[in-house]
């Protein structure tokens, strides 16, 4: 069990008010609030070890490098990866998938080759593959979503052809909450000799992930959704793939030797990390992952799921609420014919922060035949009182509308 009252004192922002009311923050799938230890880690790193990493012989640079590389080791442990060389630091999930699409695409994809994604993907797991298509002539194959918001696994199996090069799917849908059966996805794809990339933006904060046990080939997430700073992301990639992939960007750090007659690449993971990394951000990210690990992801998941059950019970007592998908750490719904933005604005004025709209998943909205949804998403610091405040505000909103 989490001591949520105590946990909340770790998050200074949760003490603020909006419109003179206590903030009820239920937009955690978009970004999470930061514990004091993460905020302090940023100030501490700037105050005590700020010096550019990897290139310095001086003491300060060595200390900064040690902290940055220790952060990579913390991420390795968090994901259960075999080696820190398989942990690439990026700016976020979006950049991780762009790196993958560009570099994997260049190494392995040719005109007419196929990439499988699903109908429930975030735009950041669709558009990079479309851009690859424009450059290389690859084609997208799309796993349909069933009416109850799951991947159509029968249809998925029929999508494979000899031209399939990669499957890239979300672990947890940021709209539907559905926890996809990625173990089955990986087993089926591997039976066809096809590697699998997992968009873990919504799973890394909520459920334990072990990339080796899963057997996925790539896994991406964003630090800012796991109580860490903005501007830091991770791409895990199996060494055997990363070794064969060309650099994503050129510059300092990623080189072995530069000559005008030709340049060689640095070893993993540096081949994929051109330029000065956000080493202050990676140090703070490690602090956030340590914070989460100390509380324990199973306890966090149990707490969040109990809040979701309470919210679902409450929503069930309201007339005309339509819930989409398979809520896990988040719930997407609509209130009768009300526009989601109107619901969101009225909730906001009662101190309840939710997200509304297409949630960067327009193809899924098209599939569902709606312009958007209202989404409430939970974090380890949310309380039953937050759920009750949301339900009370929604009841008033329904009356106003
Ligand atoms: N994928 C999923 C499933 C997401 O929910 C998000 C963010 O909402 C992203 C990718 C993009 O993450 P970021 O904006 O941090 O790069």
Structure in words:
It contains 14 helices and 17 strands. The model has no long low-confidence stretch (mean pLDDT 98). It is 40% helix and 17% strand. A seven-stranded mixed β-sheet has the order 4-10-9-8-7-5-6, with helices on both faces. A four-stranded antiparallel β-sheet has the order 13-14-17-16, with helices on one face. α11 runs parallel beside α14. The longest helix is centred in the N-terminal third of the chain and has 21 residues, at 59-79. It is an alpha/beta fold. The chain folds into two domains: 4-28 and 296-400, Aspartate Aminotransferase, domain 1 (Alpha-Beta Complex), CATH 3.90.1150; 39-293, Aspartate Aminotransferase, domain 2. The site of pyridoxal-5'-phosphate has 14 residues, from α4. Pyridoxal-5'-phosphate (PLP) is lined by residues 29-30, 92-94, 122, 124-125, 170, 174, 199, 201-202, 222.
